[in-house]
Structure formats: C-alpha cells, structure tokens
Amino acid sequence: MIGACQTGTSRYREWGAGMKAVALTEFGDADVLRVQELPDPVTGPDGVVIRVRAAGVNPVDYKIRAGYLKDAFPYHFPLIPGWDVAGEVVAVGPAVTRVAVGDAVMAYARKDHIQWGTYAELVRVREEAVAPKPASLTFSQAAGLPLAGLTALQSLSAVDTGSGDLVLVHAAAGGVGHLAVQIARALGAIRVIGTASLRNHDFIRSLGGEPVEYGPDLPERLAKVVGGDGRVDAVADYVGGQALEQSPAIVRSPRRHVSVVDPRSKEQGGRYVFVRPNGGQLKALGDLADDGRLQVEISREFPLEQAAEAHRLLEEGHVRGKVVLTVD
Fold it and tell me: Which architecture characterizes domain 6-145+296-326 according to CATH?
C-alpha cells in the first residue's frame, strides 16, 4: 500500500496486487531479461507513480544489462532496466503539486541507484522529472522522446548552439541524432549537416538537415558541402570513435564540440554531457512537438515481454530513430 498519497484506480489491476516487469537477476546477454512479478512502487513524499503505456529502449539499457556500467552506478537485483516512460499518473505523493492522478505524462526516469526502471507496468519518478505528454504524440512516440530529446537539447546547449550557427550532427539518423537535427534548427541554427549512411539521406532531409556520408574522408567531403574554411560552428557527437577524433579538426573553436559518448572530448578542449532529468526542458520539447517542429521517429515497437528482442535489435546498430516497448 502507498500510505499518505493520492491514488487512482487502474483499469486493469487492483493497487497493491504486484506488477509485471521485465528484470534481470544477473548481468549477461539479452536472455537474462525475464518477465517477473515484483512489488508495486511506493510514491514517497515527492514521487509520481506512472502506469506505463510505453517505455523507450536506449543503448544505455543494454550496457547496464551487460554489466558495462556496474562500476558507474550503484545497483541491486532484481534490476528493471529502462529510463524512458510515457503513461498515466495513478498515484502522487503528498508534496506533489504539478501533477495529478489521471494526467498523461512522460519522463526521463533515471535515478542515481539502478533497480526500478521503466520496463514494467508501474514506475515511480520524482515530480521534477515529469512533463505532460504532448497531445500530438502517441504514447510510444512520447516514450521515445525524454532521454534522447534531453540528451540532444543539453548537448547542443553546452556548445551554445544558437542563431545563425552551422552545426554538424554525427549519427544524425539515430535516436538522439534525429532529434538533435530538429532541435538545432529550433535553437536557431541556419544549417544543420548530419552524418548518415546513404539509405538515411532522404530521412535527414525530411528533418530539415543536409546529409553527408560518414567515414575517414568526412573532413574533405564536409569542406565541399560548407565551402569557405571547410569548418562548422558547432559539432555534436552521438556515436564516438572516429567521429570523436574528427570533431576538433572540423569545428572552428574546439570548445564548441561536444560528445555524449566519450568524456575524452574534454581532453580535446571540448565538452562532455551525461544527460540529466529535467521536467521543464522536457515540457519545452513537448511544446516543440505540438507546434509541429519536432517529430519522433519510431523504428520498431515490441510488447514488454519481448524486451530481449528489442535489445538484440538495438545492439545490431543502424536503427533509425527509436525502439519502444509497449505495455498493455
């Protein structure tokens, strides 16, 4: 039971009956993800319990599952992955003021301690991380927005992306990259160039970007596209590796390149960003979606029970946009 909080009645279950979740009890490959019955979350004073309608699947999820981040975050088993959620509020803590039972919401649900994620029927999120679900987006699209959208916004803001800028986005067809192309335009960039494979060039154009193929000769091909000194005002790296190594040479000022993949960008004079929950920024992204200025591309939807298949697909790479789990 929740205690002193406001609750609503779920349309499919009784409160306190226990929830279905996909969790792991050991690190490993995708097969360690299994459906389990686990206790309902407790709100706490400032918590919001969300009935999950959809949960975004992100590369960080399979890195956690595989144990790659076990030294970066405290954790406990059983561990439910997932940091993206869209759904309906079913309970709020007594100190909550901005959210009410019945609201359709979305959130970047990362916590400093990893255990109770979003691959579940219910998840608790701090009020500060929650934003209204945009009316123009489905629950699946809304679930694909928080982590990737905030990553794009916070990284572009870290390098002062603004009016008149020429911006390069590495991995522009991916989950973060396709949103970054659009957000950079919304921040005032006059041109946004995105690296992508040839099969995704039309997709980049549909987002308002100019595609260029990635590879070792990117600096030379970029110079032909932009003219002048062949460099850009700001660079956002969402893939690492070769892209990170190329960034300092193709940006006019080293401080205006940022990576969300590799903190070695700081050694190059650039910035490193690890996305933080921010309900206010997330609402601003939702407003962009409702204004028709931000679209969320969903590559594939899986039912919750097929979370392992979703992980396998994402680990293969080359996914356009977002992968999402749906919860009935």
Answer: Alpha-Beta Complex (3.90)
